[in-house]
């Protein structure tokens, strides 16, 4: 539950997490589940963050990320509102060539689940309230972070302060904490905007996620669970040129639906809007480093990527699982959980993986967000080639599940 002035304010906690969104809250839940004292500082009112219809985004939670939410005790609070992804179908414009993944080709577990961002936030905050060593301080604004050789001090706008061994920056792409630490940022715009909304449709989606590549960018149709009004729902993630997105989103419902249907196609029958629509500018960015003295960066504070592969949240969860593992291991050995060796191990673990995914999403977006004939031919032949090679398809399917690479214990389904 949110902090109030009627409860004692802690003088020292093991870890202070700045940012109470899904990644910051998950970090706190992982660490508190392992017995560390954790405080989460969030500038917004928690109820506002999890209010239905306040965000519009739905998140693809890969299988490996789901294991982390489960290990932190959050997944049971999310699962009733999560829709499993059983198949993935990738197409390129009007080309008859395609790529199709079926989860049954590699096992019984789904590729992942589609969950509304507000659902994740609500579940994270509910879990924080259940953990005796976690504390959510909100709404509260950080005005200063002083990081010394033996501890850090985090000061709030109202004058209160906490001492801690480690500060975790989970305060988003603009991250004041990262900026205050003087950590540089590389960034470039895609001159694209991500339009997101929820639609209801006549026919069931059967757990199939569609990624349809168009000249302006990818157009994704992601399966969602039913609600009280709509038995068949999907989330739309529609990449459009930046200068067109605002006009598309702000036109009448009929006009917006006409634009939507021209890209959607008729395979799910009649389509109608089932919620508000939003749009977000798209860019790539990465911090010069993921650590500093008594400071670790996770999620969007460390890196932000194009949504083309739906991996933004999942890479943030990987950050959390890796950080939680090195911190908990240090605690069990009696070491300083915010010491330089601990944070250096975290950075080494995550740096290559994050840079690889940033590069991959950038290349995919540039390759597919155009209608240049030679590139179109090359990518269509590539889709057909992968479709024709079962062994290669299985490798790509495991990547979609997030179950390849040097995974932290929680992502393997093991205890922290």
The overall pLDDT, averaged over residues, is 92
CATH top level class name of one domain: Alpha Beta
Give the CATH architecture of one domain: 3-Layer(bba) Sandwich
The radius of gyration is: 21 Å
Kindly report how far apart the N and C termini lie.
24 Å
How many distinct beta strands? Answer: 20
Question: What is the tally of helical segments?
Answer: 12
Coarse shape: globular
CATH topology of one domain: FAD/NAD(P)-binding domain
SSE-based structural type: alpha+beta
Q: Largest sheet, if any?
A: 9 strands, mixed
Helical fraction: 25-40%
Describe the structure.
The protein contains 12 helices and 20 strands. The protein has helices spanning 22-33, 46-49, 63-71, 75-78, 117-130, 176-180, 242-249, 253-264, 312-332, 340-368, 373-388, 390-401, and strands at 12-18, 38-41, 58-62, 83-85, 87-92, 98-102, 112-116, 134-137, 142-147, 152-156, 161-169, 185-201, 208-214, 217-224, 233-241, 271-273, 278-287, 291-292, 295-297, 303-304. The chain is 35% helix and 29% strand. Strands 5, 6, 12, 13, 14, 15, 16, 17 and 20 form a 9-stranded mixed beta sheet that branches. With 416 residues, the protein is an alpha+beta fold. It has a domain at 12-78 and 115-187 and 284-369: 3-Layer(bba) Sandwich (FAD/NAD(P)-binding domain), CATH 3.50.50.
């Amino acid at each position: 539950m949110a902090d109030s002035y009627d409860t004692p304010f802690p003088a020292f906690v093991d870890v202070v997490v700045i940012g109470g969104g899904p990644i910051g809250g998950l970090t706190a839940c992982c660490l508190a589940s392992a017995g560390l004292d954790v405080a989460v500082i969030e500038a917004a009112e928690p109820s506002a963050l999890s209010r239905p219809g306040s965000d519009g985004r739905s998140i693809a939670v890969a299988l490996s990320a789901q294991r982390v939410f489960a290990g932190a005790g959050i997944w049971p609070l999310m699962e009733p509102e999560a829709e499993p992804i059983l198949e993935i179908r990738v197409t390129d414009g009007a080309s008859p060539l395609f790529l199709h993944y079926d989860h049954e080709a590699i096992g019984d577990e789904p590729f992942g689940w589609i969950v509304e961002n507000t659902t994740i936030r609500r579940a994270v905050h509910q879990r924080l309230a259940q953990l005796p060593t976690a504390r959510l301080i909100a709404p509260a604004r950080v005005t200063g972070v002083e990081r010394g050789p033996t501890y850090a001090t985090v000061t709030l706008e109202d004058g209160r302060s906490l001492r801690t061994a480690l500060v975790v920056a989970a305060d988003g792409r603009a991250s004041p904490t990262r900026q205050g630490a003087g950590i540089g940022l590389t960034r470039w715009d895609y001159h694209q905007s991500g339009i997101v909304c929820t639609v209801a449709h006549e026919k069931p989606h059967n757990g199939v996620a569609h990624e349809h590549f168009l000249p302006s960018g990818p157009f994704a149709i992601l399966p969602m669970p039913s609600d009280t009004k709509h038995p068949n729902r999907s989330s739309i993630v529609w990449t459009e040129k930046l200068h067109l997105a605002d006009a598309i989103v702000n036109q009448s419902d009929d006009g917006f639906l006409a634009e939507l249907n021209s890209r959607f196609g008729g395979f799910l029958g009649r389509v109608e809007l089932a919620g508000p629509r939003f749009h977000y500018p798209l860019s790539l960015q990465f911090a010069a480093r993921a650590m500093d003295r008594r400071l670790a960066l996770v999620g969007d504070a460390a890196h932000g990527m194009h949504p083309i592969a739906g991996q933004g949240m999942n890479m943030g969860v990987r950050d959390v699982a890796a950080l939680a593992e090195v911190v908990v291991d240090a605690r069990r050995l009696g070491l300083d959980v915010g010491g330089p060796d601990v944070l250096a191990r975290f950075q080494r673990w995550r740096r290559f993986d994050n840079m690889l995914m940033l590069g991959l999403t950038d290349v995919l977006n540039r390759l597919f967000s155009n209608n240049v004939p030679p590139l179109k031919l090359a990518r269509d032949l590539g889709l057909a080639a992968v479709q024709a090679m079962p062994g290669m398809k299985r490798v790509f399917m495991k990547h979609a599940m997030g179950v390849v690479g040097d995974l932290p214990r929680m992502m393997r389904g093991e205890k922290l």
